[in-house]
Design goal:
5-stranded mixed sheet; about 300 residues; about 15% strand; globular; 3-stranded antiparallel sheet; alpha/beta
Amino acid sequence: MGGTRALAALILAISISGCSDEARPITVGSKNFLEQILLGEIAAQHLEHRLGQRVERKLNLGGTLLIHKAIVNGDIDLYPEYSGTSATVILNLPPFNNADDLSVQVRREYEARFHLRWFDPLGFNNTFAMVIRKADADRLGVRSLQDAERHPFGWVLGMGYEFQQRLDGLPNLLRTYALPLRGTPKVMDLGLLYRALEQGDVSMVAANSTDGLLLSLDVTVLEDNRNCFPRYDAAFVARNQTIAREPRLAAALQDLSGKFSDDTMRRLNHQVLVLHGSVEDVANEFLRTSGLLKEP
């Protein structure tokens, strides 16, 4: 009798567990900076519209290694990532000169190693961008990183923690360009980089090519004429297990592929950071103007 009750309890527990997994909402994650949060919100709103169900958000989670662990462990079901970041930080792959080869390799490795699907690119490349004040660029005649090698007094570099640590960041920059430096590079929160540049605390910052502030500040992005930095094509990554549970998810995410350009992403970042629009409103407006969200 006791064995029968135990077996019945076990069957009930398995049944409840299976039902709860089926009923569990899709969870969208993002890293801890504005562009990622925007892309996560865009995906969440689009999935809610396309799938007709509530989508959970775990945005602003943290850096690359943390969010990768979250998706592998099943704490989130999908998030936006960048090909160059995945190749360097997660997969430890050698540099790729061809963007198509890089995407193919990353897609293959993510499927084989982690059972994750790497979707087609969203359409923009958020690469590292070395930025200086326009006044300095004009005064020194500097338009490229190669030009910057000739600075007579040296540059004071400002950067985020990841750029300092990553092999495709500061080590790669200094290996490719013989930049004269004045003092030790200053590591700070990404949100403080442009303020430090404006205030003269640093004279060059490692920013990103789709930063919204590039549309409103008097700065110059230096040409990477030796192709120091790989491409960082954005794409969504999702768990195969979640796609199997919700077969409509793949087509819904594919809707977003190719819908962005570098200018589009820069403008979306600008609308939140500079024009103070809410992430939710900016995401909603993007989906409507892209024809992905039709009012009833």
